[in-house]
């Protein structure tokens, strides 16, 4: 089984990168790939609760992150420093995540077969 990591670095709105990353994660998991997600930099903004992207004319793909357990995507990591940079706390996030430091992220990236950045 191939280990795939999707790294979310860009903000959730204004581009299709986040939606494409999420679509790829769900599709890959449905084909028996071991998928993990890592959120760093502006990518942490994908996981904020109660977003209303339709107010800016965007589609609400953000709520689809709640479907991760249905696809057996259990390894979801978020950068501790990025959370602090944006003044966010674990309680403001919409899905269960593991808060990790930069060293843990680097170690995880070394353990997977492929990393795709969105």
Features:
single chain; 118 residues; alpha/beta; 25% helix
Task: Describe this entry's structure for a reader.
By secondary structure, the chain is an alpha/beta fold. It contains 3 helices and 5 strands, in the order E-H-E-E-H-E-H-E. It has helices spanning 17-30, 80-85, 102-111; strands spanning 3-8, 34-39, 75-79, 98-100, 114-117. It has a 5-stranded parallel beta sheet. The longest helix has 14 residues, at 17-30.
In short:
Belongs to the DsrF/TusC family. This protein is α/β, with parallel strands linked by helices.
Calculate the terminal CA-CA distance, rounded to whole Å: 22 Å
Q: What is the overall silhouette?
A: globular
Counted by DSSP, the helix tally is 3
Strand pairing plus helix content: what structural class? alpha/beta
Q: What is the ordering of alpha helices and beta strands?
A: EHEEHEHE
Q: Rounded to an integer, what's the Rg over CA atoms?
A: 13 Å
Mean pLDDT: 94
Q: Unreliable segments (pLDDT under 50, ≥5 consecutive)?
A: none
What fraction of residues sit in β-strands?
15-25%
Biggest sheet, strands in spatial order? 4-3-2-1-5
The beta-strand count equals 5
Please describe the biggest sheet, giving its number of strands, its sense, and whether it closes into a barrel. 5 strands, parallel
Helix content: 25-40%
């Amino acid at each position: 089984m191939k280990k795939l990591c999707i790294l979310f670095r860009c903000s959730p709105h204004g581009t299709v990168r986040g939606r494409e990353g999420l679509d790829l994660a769900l599709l890959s998991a449905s084909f028996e790939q071991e998928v993990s997600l890592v959120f760093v930099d502006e990518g942490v903004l994908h996981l904020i609760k109660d977003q209303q992207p339709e107010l800016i004319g965007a589609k609400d793909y953000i709520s689809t992150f709640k479907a991760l357990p249905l696809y057996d995507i259990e390894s979801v990591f978020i950068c501790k420093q990025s959370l602090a940079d944006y003044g966010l706390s674990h309680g403001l996030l919409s899905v269960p995540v593991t808060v990790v430091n930069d060293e843990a992220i680097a170690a995880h990236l070394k353990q997977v077969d492929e990393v795709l950045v969105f």
